[in-house]
Design goal:
about 75% helix, mainly alpha, single chain, 7 helices, about 150 residues, extended
């Protein structure tokens, strides 16, 4: 068997194994875990902050009104929309553009398409540390600029 099928079968089987392990280990509440003893259950219950609702109560509804009126939420969603359009272009249309317009061979085209993805990956992983390093130099407002202008 050659091609993509063995890879998909192995990923599917690995996914089933991971789902089985998570089904055994994880619970909705820590005190429901089979290896959690009575003392641990009491400790979990006692450590909840005063005024915290019971985790066994009914979940409230979605606060649509405050969410739709929140300026920061609108700005973040617009920014995410633009960023995702950019990533979708890089993954779908950019390789085709490089081939049809510039006749870039497939190996170079793959490299040119993957560079922005890897740079973005490092940006996601290192962005928080970078802003932490910038705060002492340029201040909190400029070091974390996205939050500074969104919170009026």
């Amino acid at each position: 068997m050659a091609g993509w099928r063995p890879v998909m079968i192995s990923y599917g089987l690995l996914g089933l194994v991971v789902a089985g392990i998570l089904g055994i280990v994880l619970r909705n509440h820590p005190e429901q875990h089979p290896r959690c003893n009575r003392v641990e259950r009491l400790l979990i219950s006692a450590s909840r902050p005063v005024g915290t609702p019971s985790p066994y109560g009914k979940v409230g509804g979605v606060p649509w009104g405050p969410m739709l009126k929140n300026w920061s939420l609108w700005c973040v969603n617009i920014e995410n929309f633009g960023a995702n359009i950019g990533w979708a272009f890089l993954l779908t249309w950019f390789p085709r553009y490089l081939f049809e317009v510039h006749k870039v061979p497939i190996v170079e085209r793959g490299l040119m398409t993957s560079i922005p993805l890897f740079v973005g990956w490092f940006g996601v992983l290192g962005g928080g540390k970078l802003t932490d390093c910038l705060v002492p130099w340029v201040g909190l407002r400029w070091g974390r600029r996205e939050r500074g202008w969104l919170q009026r």
